[in-house]
Amino acid sequence: MFKQTYRLFFCSLIMLLTSCASQYEPGRYRNETPKLDMQSYFNGKLDAWGMFQDRSGAIVKRFTVVMDCQWSGDTGTLNEDFSYSDGSKQKRIWTLKKVGNDQFTGTAADVIGEAKGQVSGNTLHWNYVLALPVDGSIYNVDFDDTMVLMDDRIMLNRAIMRKFGVELGSVTLSFTKRSSTTP
């Protein structure tokens, strides 16, 4: 009986640990088009619409984002202004740096440490820890964030949020890059 219980526990532990790991493989998307050029796409004004969902799939909060982005050499600044469905507002300013071929880092006031990102084909994959305010408390939550360029203006984004390896929920966004004639 003990041996059977031990095997069940061990198999469950392995399944839990492997389900917590990111399934992102950078080479998988290298031939996907259109190719994502971070310094081109995240330059100028963008609009985004998104939602938070808990792990059951229930929509917890909806939001919009207006982004103003600019680059100077290998350093980019992304000013994000969030408006949430409950009427609250938030501002986040990202500083991005190109640190290698298709590799980027990012910092922001509510990002713990440094975000690490890699571009492959039409896809950007980020990993970072965000200090997330929830009901008056702050929780440091792991984000596994995948952004996919659909065409020269549209990007889709899905981020999985985890704490201690346990999935808490997800964030889904759709970005639209404004044309040069749109204010």
CATH architecture: Beta Barrel
Specify Rg, calculated over alpha carbons.
18 Å
Residue runs with pLDDT of under 50 for 5 or more positions: 8-21
Strand content: over 45%
- Tally of DSSP helical segments: 2
Number of strands: 10
The CATH H-level superfamily is: Calycin beta-barrel core domain
* Inertia-based shape: globular
Helix amount, in percent? 10-25%
Largest sheet: 10 strands, antiparallel, barrel
Write out the strand line-up for the largest beta sheet, numbering strands in chain order.
Answer: 1-2-3-4-5-6-7-8-9-10
Helix and strand composition category: mainly beta
CATH class: Mainly Beta
CATH topology: Lipocalin
Q: Ends: how far apart?
A: 70 Å
Mean pLDDT: 90
Order of helices and strands: HHEEEEEEEEEE
Q: How many structurally independent domains?
A: 1
What brief labels describe this structure?
Lipocalin; 60% strand; mainly beta; 183 residues
Task: Explain what you see.
The protein is mainly β. The protein has a single domain, classed as Lipocalin (Beta Barrel). It is built from two helices and ten strands. The chain has helices at residues 2-20, 38-41, and strands at 44-54, 59-72, 75-84, 89-100, 103-107, 111-120, 123-134, 137-149, 154-163, 166-177. A ten-stranded antiparallel β-barrel has the order 1-2-3-4-5-6-7-8-9-10. Strand 2 (59-72) and strand 3 (75-84) form a beta hairpin. The protein is globular, with a radius of gyration of 18 Å. 15% of the residues are buried. Mean pLDDT is 90; it is low at 8-21.
